[in-house]
Amino acid sequence: MKNSLIIIGIILFAAFGLQSKATNLTANVASIDITPPLEMKYTLGGYGERMNAPAEGIHDRIWAKVLAFKNGSQKYIIVTLDILGLPSNVKKDLVERISTRGWSMENVMLLPSHSHGSLEMAALNSKNLLNSPQIGIFQPELLEFILDKLEAVIKKADQNYQAVKVGTKSKIIEGLNRNRRGDPDVDRELTLTRIDLTNGNPLAVLVNWTAHPTFIGGEDMLVSAEWPGYLQRDLQNLIGNGVTAMYYNGAEGDQSPILNEPVNAYEKIQIYGKKIADKAFDIFNEIKPKKVKTFKSSYNTIVLPEKMAHPSFMETGGAEYGLDENTVKIVLEMLGPKEVGLGALRIGDLIIAGVPGEMTAKLGIEVKNAIKISGVKYVTIGGLANEWVSYILTRDQYINGKGYESSISFYGPGLGEIISTEVIKTAKSITN
What we know:
31% of the residues lie in helices and 25% in strands. It has 11 helices and 18 strands. The chain has helices at 2-20, 88-98, 140-157, 226-239, 265-286, 317-321, 325-335, 361-372, 395-400, 404-407, 415-428, and strands at 26-33, 57-58, 63-71, 74-81, 108-112, 162-172, 177-179, 189-197, 202-208, 222-223, 244-248, 255-257, 295-303, 339-347, 350-355, 358-359, 378-383, 391-392. The strands form 5 sheets. The protein has an 8-stranded mixed β-sheet. A 4-stranded mixed β-sheet has the order 13-14-15-17, with helices on one face. A two-stranded parallel sheet has the order 2-10. It starts with a helix and ends with a helix.
C-alpha cells in the first residue's frame, strides 16, 4: 500500500511538473524597408478623392517587421506592416512562397497599421479588374514588390532563434483617442508585450493602441507610415539596445486620435507618435519578462454572410468611390471574399485575437472581455488581421446606420455578431 501511494505521488508530481514547466520558447526579429520607388507611380490608400494619382514624394519610409517564434517544432510569425490594409490574395500568395519553410495560413498573422499615408490595398488586389481610379487600380508590379520584400524579411527572421522571456502589461490612457461616431465606446487600453533575450537584452516590443492613422488627409500625397511610424521609431530610440518596436492596431473602426495642436498633418503625426511612444516607454519599464509557460495558436475558417450594400452606401461610400447601385454589386462580387480565416495567438499572459477588418470599439471591447473571463490576463484585438473584409459593427449600429462606418459594412446586419462569436471561439480554444 505504501509503495502504491509513493508511485501515485510520483505520477501526480510529474503531471503537475509538466503543466507548470515553462516552454522552450525562442524568437528572432527582422525588419525591411517596403517603400516602393516613386517610379512605380503607386497611389496612397484610404481616400477615393485621390483618384489613383501617384504619390508625389516620400515623407517617411514604411516598413514590414517580423517577430518569429519557435517552440520545439511549433512555429509562429507576427508580421506588422506600415500600410492601409491587405486584400485576401496577399497572405495566400505569400504563404505559397514560404510554405516549404513550415509556414502556413495557420501560423502566420499579418497586421497592417492602417496608415492612410501608405499603399492603397486595392492596388495589391489581384482580383481587382475594375480599373476604377476612385477604388484604386491593381498594380501587379507593386504586388510582386511587396511579396518579394515580405518573403525576404520572413526568411531573415526564420533563423538564429534565441531563447526569450516575455512580459505583457496594459494601462488605460485618457485623452488620446475618441469615438468618431459620437458613441460612448472608446478603447483606451494601451498594451505592450516585451520580448527579451534571456540575458536581459530587449529583442522586440509589441504595441497595441486603438485609433485610426488619419491625420494625413486625401490631399496629402507623400508616403508615410503616419503616427504609428513615429511611435515605433521614437520607442526604439527610447529603449535603445537595437530593439525592434512593432505596432498593431485594435478594433479601430470608429476610433480616432485626439490632438489639438494647430499644426499641419505631417507635424501632427510626429507629435502624436511621440505621445504614444512616451506612454509606451513608461509601461515597457514596468514589465518584468519571464519564461513563458504557455505558447499556443489557433485558426479557424468561416463562411461569411451574403454580400450586400448597406442602404446608405450611395450617400457615403458610393459617392466617394464613384459607384452606383449596379456597379456596387459588381465590386462586391469581385472583391469581397466568401470566407475568411480567423487566427489567435497566446504568448504567456497575452492573447492576440485577429479580426479581419475594421471592428467598432463596442464589439472589440466585448470580444476582449469575453476572452478574458476564461482566465487570460491580457487580450488585444489584432485589427485588420490578414485581410480586410469591411467594417464590422453591431446589429444596432448597422441597422440605425449613422455615418460612414455602417455604409462600408458589406455583409449585412449579422456580420458583427458572426465575426465576434467566431473570434471568441477561436481565442478561447487556447485559454487552457
